[in-house]
Amino acid sequence: MSESTDAAPPEAYPFSKPEGLLAHYTKASTAFEDILPGRLRLSPYRLMRDPAENKDIEPNIVTRHGDSAIAEAWALIKAERDRRRVLSLTRDADNGGEFPRFDCCWARPRMWEQYGDNHRGACLLFDPMRLKRAIREQWPDERTRHLDNVEYRRHGSAEVYQRTVIADQILSDAQPPSAAADYINANRDAYFFLKSDDFATEWEYRVVLATDHTSDDADERHKSAHCNERDDYAYLDYRDSLVGVVLGERVPPWQWPGAVEACSRINVKPGRMEWRNGRPRVFPVR
Question: Is 210 among the domain residues?
């Protein structure tokens, strides 16, 4: 599939069926004051809702050199994982069925309630190909980025505990931090893309990015764009990948004109959510 650099017009997205977009549910104030100006915020793992993710996950570490080697190897692994920041998006479900709108990424009642400020927030819709391009341009080293669907299992990311690490292989490397990074990347599924099946209805698509670059061409502009040391978040310029903003059904009408104006400034299609006869629909904002 080609990746055009020209943004499609707003009418190119009818929001009436699954279109392969990625959704981000948030408060209205966050959407219009923080995100629409041009960037998305990625969070450290300790802020994830899944308790198997917001705790340190120590694998089974073995060595011939005692507890100190285990502690050193674990510190390197933990430091590498702590470099990563996470952006959670919602993809279309692939359930199929008679009513395809229920599979749309913007048609998740629990997501609206939990993340969309109890239906008073907004759902931002991104074109995945353009978003991937923006990420590659800002994180050119493929070792510093992971993008994939989340898989759901009963034990979730606690599977890391079942992995075995030979500490001596990490510590004997000429660059132990690099060896720890290789271990993390080799086990990316367990560390970054497994969650408890209690979260399965979220149909999560996840972006995991390292907070700095180790390549020679990393400059201060890259570093400042990637990680804000003050608040421990990372920031991504999403560029032309935002294609729509859907208002929750409880957003009051007096806020609609401001939303329309904000969307028109960046050539993004606005809509509003309704559940008529229990079925999800996106209507034009008038």
Answer: yes
Dump the DSSP string for 8-33. Answer: PPGGG---SS--S-EEEEE-HHIIII
Residue 81 lies in a domain: yes
According to DSSP, the β-strands at 39-42 and 204-210 are unpaired
Provide the pLDDT for residue 10: 61
Out of 13-22, 194-203, 233-242, the most confident range is 233-242
pTM check: above 0.85: yes
Helix H or strand E encompassing 176: helix 176-186
Grouping H, G, I as helix, E, B as strand and the rest as coil, residue 186 is helix
CA–CA gap between residue 180 and residue 222 (Å, rounded)? 23
Reduced to 3 DSSP states, what percent helix, strand and coil does the chain have, rounded to the nearest 5? 40, 25, 35
Host domain of residue 35: 20-283
CA neighbor of 26 nearest in space, from 104, 139, 126: 126
What is the count of structural domains for the chain? 1
Neighbours of 154 (CB within 10 A): 8
Distance CA 286, CA 266 (A): 18
46, part of any domain? yes
From residue 197, alpha-carbon distances to 12, 193, 194, 203, 279 in Å are 35, 12, 9, 10, 25
Q: CA nearest 210: which of 79, 89, 55?
A: 79
Q: Quick check: helix, strand or coil at residue 206? A: strand
Look at residue 13 and tell me if it is in a domain.
Answer: no
- pLDDT(4) > 50: no
Give ∠ CA 228-229-230 in degrees, rounded to 5.
Answer: 90
